[in-house]
Design a protein that fits this description.
- The structure is a homodimer.
- Chain A is an alpha/beta fold.
- Chain A folds into two domains: 5-104, 3-Layer(aba) Sandwich (Rossmann fold), CATH 3.40.50; 121-268, Rossmann fold.
- Helices cover 43% and strands 16% of the residues of chain A.
- Chain A has helices at residues 16-26, 45-62, 75-79, 92-104, 121-136, 161-172, 183-186, 209-219, 228-244, 257-268, and strands at residues 5-11, 34-39, 66-71, 87-91, 151-156, 176-181, 202-206, 249-251.
- In chain A, β5 (151-156), α6 and β6 (176-181) form a beta-alpha-beta unit.
- The two termini of chain A are 46 Å apart.
- Chains A, B: Keywords: Kinase, Nucleotide-binding, Serine/threonine-protein kinase, Transferase.
- Chains A, B: It catalyses: [pyruvate, water dikinase]-phosphate + phosphate + H(+) = [pyruvate, water dikinase] + diphosphate; [pyruvate, water dikinase] + ADP = [pyruvate, water dikinase]-phosphate + AMP + H(+).
- Chains A, B: ADP binds at residues 155-162.
């Protein structure tokens, strides 16, 4: 069996950019097994030197180059990873900053820590406000803030509403509420009373019955609530309601929160706050 | 005044990678104002053609090239954005896939939608499980799951515990609980009883008194709770507690959830589940 290939995502800040970028490339090589490590806050030559020694040790043990994806602002520090026999270095900044400088006809500032830090406090506060809003307006606890919500997610219990709301709040500052469709709601053809005034803010989530059955069974084994028959029934009724009232909806079964969020933003055309 | 420079982040999937990557580069040009648009799901030549026409219209109106950052798997579709007089195209895949193919001595698969979709259902379920865990163990509601938690965040009310927990759960599948230090807890020198058995899982958050005062004032104006004097007192006592019991802690005032999360992972050495 081939051993796994070692990869490092390194950064002088959180490492989110280097990791995200590196993973999207490595995912295209599904035939190779990668062992990846993210190292944030590599912001001094001393830390860089220590890391290089660690990487060299790994590479020598495996007798194979280690892949390093870096996003490090300091030219001095990032260059330290160049020209090592055992390091294959892909540098986000070196690769593109020169061509952007030419296009913009100006020099880059190269100031540390601008990407995932609090550059704009108002925008950051909007994210945190949105997280609190999502928590306070989760699971149909109350409709008192529905008028302030950007989107009200609607779906049967465990269809994926809460994680989707939290992701949209945390990443984009969207004011998300959600409302669980109960069996009582589903037996009627009308919209639930709490939702009627907000028809144009509603967005539905649905899910495959088998997946819902599995999720609910983990919570309440052997319950009517979790039974496949009941899951099928609830989902059919929820989808009928969405169609009847022209509520856009998505199936969350094979979609990550990132995909659901991107689709919801695109379909609703809601303005992001960050 | 110089008008803003138009930028598009485009992808056949969520656009998260292209946006993240592009923003980290553009942030280095703080002197330029950018007007950015993210377009996900550009997965057919027809959609690409429509988008190119829109971009060309913008560019011609402004008489300035539009910057396009793309992460599109289909070679045919991404090449459609090349060689336009009005498009400055930075292609994440074209730039690096060839050199990685050479390094790995194999061809890339180039299969769509691997980065922010559910490739590994177990890993994805771990994220969603962690979100539910964070919600159920938020704000010291109960200690019944503290034994299962990876980390228990501790701090005074509104020091940033909940958003940090949710981010670590949603991004990395970490099982996070949190416990708010109340004035009763703070007047004693001992750890709160609920926390005593979990000393080695505790991580503290602190915050500057002025910032805490501002956040609490929005919630409860003119209260003792929000007063600057009380905020100072609570923070002093909380920090004393952290120091006395050797609890690692961070100041959340100027740190984003991304930065807090990266630091907490690094300091605790907790294993990510995704």
């Amino acid at each position: 069996m081939q051993s796994s290939r070692s990869v490092f995502f390194i950064s002088d800040r959180t490492g989110v950019t280097a990791e995200n970028f590196g993973i999207s490339l490595l995912n295209q090589f599904g035939q190779i097994k990668f062992k990846s490590t993210t190292v944030p806050f590599v912001d001094t030559p001393f830390k860089a030197q220590q890391l290089i020694e660690n990487i060299n040790t790994i590479a020598k043990t495996k007798n194979q180059r280690v892949i390093v994806f870096s996003s490090i602002i300091s030219e001095h520090i990032r260059r330290m990873f160049d020209n090592h026999a055992y390091i294959f270095h892909i540098d986000v900044f070196d690769s593109f900053i020169p061509m952007l400088e030419q296009e913009f006809d100006t020099k880059a500032h190269m100031v540390m820590g601008l990407t995932h830090s609090i550059v704009d406090e108002t925008k950051y506060d909007a994210r945190i406000h949105a997280v609190n809003f999502a928590l306070e307006n989760d699971d149909g606890i109350t409709d008192k803030n529905f008028s302030k919500a950007d989107v009200i997610l609607v779906g049967v219990s465990r269809s994926g509403k809460t994680p989707t709301c939290l992701y949209l709040a945390l990443q984009y500052g969207i004011l998300m509420a959600n409302y669980p469709l109960t069996p009582d709601d589903l037996h009627r053809t009308e919209l639930p009373n709490m939702l009627k005034p907000y028809r144009n803010k509603l967005f539905g989530l649905t899910i495959e019955p088998l997946r819902l059955n599995r999720i609910r069974t983990e919570r309440r084994p052997n319950s009517t609530y979790a039974s496949l028959h009941n899951c099928q029934l609830e989902i059919n009724e929820a989808e009928s309601m969405f169609r009847q009232h022209g509520i856009p909806f998505l199936n969350s079964t094979h979609k990550s929160v990132e995909e659901l969020a991107a689709s919801i933003l695109q379909i609703t055309n809601i303005q992001r706050r960050c």
